[in-house]
Amino acid sequence: MSSSLACAGGGDGGGGGSASTTVTATGWHVLKVEDYSQLKGIGVARRIKSNPFVVGGRSWCVTFFPDGSSEETVDWVCIGLRLERRRRHHDDDDGIAVARAKYSFLDQVGEPVPSSTVGGTSVRVFSRPGQSWVHPEFIRREDMESSHVRDDKFCIRCDVTVIERNCCQVPATVPPSDLRRHLGDLLAAGAGADVAFEVAGETLAAHKAVLAARSPVFKAEFFGSLLKENAATATHVRIHGMEPRVFRAMLHFIYTDSLPEIGPDERMAMAQHLLVAADRYDMERLKSMCEFVLCMHVSEDVAVSTLVLAEQHGCHQLKEACFKILGSSGKYKELLVGDDLEHLASSSPSLLVELCARLGLDEL
């Protein structure tokens, strides 16, 4: 079973090139494979397809071959890009698409794993709808299963660049952005910090301008019109209802747009706490990243409590993931007992009614 997430945009994101390069359109798509054990063994050259997505005015899909794309690749997992249909509303379009694709497994927070990335350099010509280019040796099956399959599921991101036309080449080199590293160093050093947060007895320094740029709540707190005179001069803020490690992780995200390294034993708890913090400080990207982590790693044991969390914070995808786990579990009645059920009934009676309806139960 697979599901998809996509994003498209214009322009080339960075790296090397030239001052006047090819005109491109870029976008990415995430293929989420669930119940992998049921897909393995479907047969050589048999594939599953992602939902279609659009980059450069053309529709594409990712193709995935669990048992290899040929007899020569039976020990490999293969992946490819397929052109679905021609670009619309372009009378001069000859139907040819020129593109390159890069494939990466995603880690527990939804970021590409550099060591697993393949492709991205070779340019392919798609001369007709329905044509595919397959990477025949994406990863050995045993390596994928030992490194990337967790709880019978995994995610692969496909970055697509569609090349529209060639322009004159002027040699130039654009280094990759190091803004994240610089801001992360600024947070670590505390240089120029103008506010200190007291969190459960621990003091953490930060910069009001950075916080305000990343969170509407911090912006209102420090520079809001009604409190501007007092808030702008405040240098000490006490934080209630949050652990220091969670606030520290949130600061790391604010400055670097990424999550810190989180051990497997802490992953679920940290993601839950950070989701609450993200909602509290109105940071949608952090909230989405935490929801992604929880969707990937939620299990039967925590499905009920996670369902309540999803309902309280408006996380639709996480809510559906919990419903799916509970609905497919053969022991859901055993799970819906004790403190979790009491918490569900007291915090959200309507959610309990919805859960009963989804499970086909009259009552619990």
UniProtKB/TrEMBL annotation:
<dbReference type="InterPro" id="IPR011333">
    <property type="entry name" value="SKP1/BTB/POZ_sf"/>
</dbReference>
<dbReference type="Pfam" id="PF24570">
    <property type="entry name" value="BACK_BPM_SPOP"/>
</dbReference>
<dbReference type="InterPro" id="IPR002083">
    <property type="entry name" value="MATH/TRAF_dom"/>
</dbReference>
<dbReference type="GO" id="GO:0016567">
    <property type="term" value="P:protein ubiquitination"/>
</dbReference>
<protein>
    <recommendedName>
        <fullName>BTB domain-containing protein</fullName>
    </recommendedName>
</protein>
<feature type="domain" description="MATH">
    <location>
        <begin position="26"/>
        <end position="160"/>
    </location>
</feature>
<feature type="domain" description="BTB">
    <location>
        <begin position="193"/>
        <end position="259"/>
    </location>
</feature>
<dbReference type="Pfam" id="PF22486">
    <property type="entry name" value="MATH_2"/>
</dbReference>
<comment type="pathway">
    <text>Protein modification; protein ubiquitination.</text>
</comment>
<dbReference type="InterPro" id="IPR045005">
    <property type="entry name" value="BPM1-6"/>
</dbReference>
<comment type="similarity">
    <text>Belongs to the Tdpoz family.</text>
</comment>
<dbReference type="Pfam" id="PF00651">
    <property type="entry name" value="BTB"/>
</dbReference>
<dbReference type="InterPro" id="IPR000210">
    <property type="entry name" value="BTB/POZ_dom"/>
</dbReference>
<dbReference type="InterPro" id="IPR008974">
    <property type="entry name" value="TRAF-like"/>
</dbReference>
<dbReference type="InterPro" id="IPR056423">
    <property type="entry name" value="BACK_BPM_SPOP"/>
</dbReference>
